[in-house]
Structures are given as C-alpha cells and as structure tokens.
Amino acid sequence: MIKVGDSLPSVTLMEYSEVEGEGCSIGPNAVDVTKAAAGKTIAVFALPGAFTPTCSAKHVPGYVQHFDDFKATGVDEIWCLSVNDAFVMGAWARDQKTGTKVRMLADGSADFAKATGLTLDLTGRGMGLRSNRYSMLVKDGKVASLNVEAPGKFEVSDAETLLAQAKA
Fold first, then answer.
1. Catalytic residue numbers?
2. Domains and CATH numbers, the chain
3. Could you state, in chain order, the average pLDDT of each consecutive group of 10 residues for the chain (168 residues)?
4. Nearest CA to 135 among 44, 64, 68?
5. Which residues touch 67 (CB under 8 Å, ≥6 apart)?
6. Residue whose C-alpha is closest to residue 52's, from 146, 137, 147, 131
7. Residue 62 CB neighbours (<10 A)
8. What residues contact 2, with CB distance under 8 A and at least 6 apart?
9. What residues contact residue 164 under an 8 Å CB cut-off, 6+ apart?
10. DSSP one-letter string for 65-134
C-alpha cells in the first residue's frame, strides 16, 4: 500500500469536460497524474463509487463546502477519484455542483487504485473491484499524509480531517 513519502503512481485518469478550455476538449480528457501533480499541493480523496449514499451525502459535499478553506492553506486543487467512467463522473459532478472546486477524476479500470494498493473488492455486492475510501494530501507528487478508512467507515477521510492536516 502507498505510504507517506511515496510518489503517486504514474497512471492516466480521465476527466469529463463540458466546455473547452486550457487544452481540454469537450468530453473525456486524459489526465497524466505525474504531470498534473507536479509542483502542486493537492487534496485527494477517493471513494467506492459515484452516486452512492455516503459518497454523495457526505464525502463530496464536505470537500466542496471547504474549498475556500483548502485554498487558504495553500492547496492548489482538490481531486475526487472513483472507479467509474468519465461520463459517470461528469454527471456526478453536475449533480454535486462541484464546478471548478473539485476535479472529478475517473479511474475507470482501477489502475490508480491497484497501483496504490488501495482497492476494495465489492464483487460480492455486484460492484466489482473499487477504490477504498481514503484521503491524502499530496505535495509535488508525493504523499504528505494518508487517511485510509476501515471497511464501511467514514471517519478519517472527510474534508475536516484532511483540512486540519493541510493547516499543520
């Protein structure tokens, strides 16, 4: 499993864009994790699935609500990762009204989740291999803090916990 001090895996995520801008075309665009994280401080949180109850009711809203607080601590971007496709993540971004506050990044084949060792096998519940629920503060592509949830829990990956770590 990835740990504090490790670099983020060199994988490609996908992001759905509804408008053209800054080199992004409308539709799914590739996001090279190594390049996107270089020189930035990023609040990353991951969850088992878009439109799922805890993820939609608590996890994403907390990060949207605390966007300005994260920016005040020097966080450049907030990323939400899920093992879903870019179209689902785009629809979920609209539903959650993330706007430009949270980048909703699709890890469709679970490449990031596998490379970090943070997978969650929900095959028995009909959901296949997913991402575990966690948050991490990343500085210049390296993990500065990591908060991994126990199965079925939502206690340490919330926005408030990561925000306190960003302030420290």
1. 55
2. 12-167 (3.40.30.10)
3. 98 87 76 98 96 88 98 98 96 95 97 97 85 97 97 94 97
4. 44
5. 78, 101, 102
6. 131
7. 19
8. 8, 9, 115, 116, 117, 118, 136, 143, 146
9. none
10. HTHHHHHHTT--EEEEEESS-HHHHHHHHHHHT-TTTSEEEE-TT-HHHHHHT-EEEEGGGT-EEEEPPE
For the chain, the 3-state helix, strand and coil shares in percent, each to the nearest 5, are 30, 30, 35
The pLDDT, as a whole number, for residue 40 is 98
CA nearest neighbour of 78 among 131, 37, 109:
37
**Furthest-apart CA pair in the chain: how many Å?**
42
- Listed residue (118, 54, 112) closest to 79, CA to CA: 112
The tokens for 123 are: 């095959």
Is residue 49 within 8 A of residue 89, CB to CB? The reply is no
- pTM equals 0.94
- Which residues lie below 8 Å from residue 80, measured CB to CB, with a gap of 6+? 45, 46, 47, 59, 60, 63, 89, 98, 102, 103, 104, 105
Side-chain half-sphere exposure of 123, counting CA atoms within 13 A: 3
